Amino acid sequence: MPVTDFAALSLAPELLTTLQDLNYRQMTPIQQQSLPAILAGQDVIAQAQTGSGKTAAFALGLLSRLKVKRFRIQSLVLCPTRELAEQVAKEIRTLGRSIHNIKVLTLCGGVPSRHQILSLEHGAHILVGTPGRLLDHLQQQRLDLSELSTLVLDEADRMLEMGFLDDVATIAAATPANRQTLLFSATYPAQIEQLAASLMRQPLRVSVQQAEAESPIAQQFYALGDSSREEAVMRLLQQHQPASCVVFCNTKRVTQQLTDALQQHGFSAKALHGDLEQKDRDQTLLQFANQSARILVATDVAARGLDISDLELVINAELAHDTDTHTHRIGRTGRAGAKGQAFSLVDGKDDYKVSLLQDELTKTIQLQPLPALSLLDKTPAKATMVTIQIQGGKKQKLRPGDIVGALTRNQQIAFDDVGKIQLHDLWAYVAVKRSVAKKALQILNHDKMKGRNFKAWQL
């Protein structure tokens, strides 16, 4: 019988206490298959989709091996994107919160190196970052990986897709040969096999594939016919009015064109692709996560690693180039027991892709007609929230409580009308319900926080 309860594992009492507090009792299938081997120090290759619980699997492994009193870099997690790295670091900190004095440092591109250099000078136990930035620090001799015990490659397939193979190999070469290596990947192409062979020692390979019968995602395929792709997406959006939807495109150009068309027709849409400046990218993700934007139009690489909860709908404006990518796209919805929907647009050039999907689904795909053209006469629904940016952050000692306090003081705005708050060094973002946005801006621009005035504006 496979072990299913975390309490049956040889985990430190403080880790078990944290798992109980977080209501993590039963392991997910990937955790059941990989965690015993990870805790035993074995190299592991784990193939599993996003949302399978893989982050907790390797996080518990590296936290178990950690020697807190030894203030050296002991674990390194490589991720393809900054968003995934920050998400992973957050989960490691959450799971390790009962172990005092753990330092988890995130090293990613898109932000100035200056603060990272200062943090590195003060030392760390666990590093989480993107290959490019980590390699830069390594080449500048700011990293000492000589005492590394665990190397994790998360979303390894996407790191290779993004051209990080050489960077990963160079970083791995700077670590001890006797380290433990853990490789997590949604797909297992030949390149991953070659990478594993070069970096790992007799790895255990585990794989968890979600059976189609268990899938909580309802898929529908629509014939594009004579309609333009933009018009087809709009008809689907108008018929279903999702509060949150990701629309996938295959190229940056189509992504931007579709976003522009949606915005011109009044849809609450944002683009996410590789040509965006980091600041614009961060603000787009922030607005989608806090419900200030209903629709995110994205390329596969740009959306990799996004952890979006309560996503109602995925639309493939263009069919993915392969079945693995299609599966990964639609896996963004229907998570954590919720039901999800995935719609795919099919044109006359997609016969080969459709046949591959039919083989994967082991059933014939029936193309449906698009919803009525008259739906385009309706006014698109606006986002529930708006985001306000405040010119002040951690450096000015601002805390979320200061912002909430200012907005709700004397019941000017109801507590329930204030959404997510995100603090950065020099900026803060707060989501408020659209109906109170004007009042919230007035309060933040005229009332004091921390005894001083801050400038605020709506994004």
Automatic annotation (TrEMBL):
Pfam family of this protein, just one?
DbpA
Occurrences of domain Helicase ATP-binding (ranges): 35-206
Q: Does this UniProt record's set of keywords contain Secreted?
A: no
Q: What is its EC number?
A: 3.6.4.13
**Residue stretches making up the Helicase C-terminal domain:** 228-376
- Keyword set, alphabetical order: ATP-binding, Helicase, Hydrolase, Nucleotide-binding
Q: Where is this motif: Q motif?
A: 4-32
Q: Which domain of life is it from?
A: Bacteria
As one GO molecular function, the record gives: hydrolase activity
Q: Where does the DEAD-box RNA helicase Q domain start and stop, copy by copy?
A: 4-32
State the similarity comment: Belongs to the DEAD box helicase family.
Q: Which NCBIfam families match?
A: PRK11776.1
Q: What is this protein called?
A: ATP-dependent RNA helicase DbpA
Gene for this chain: dbpA
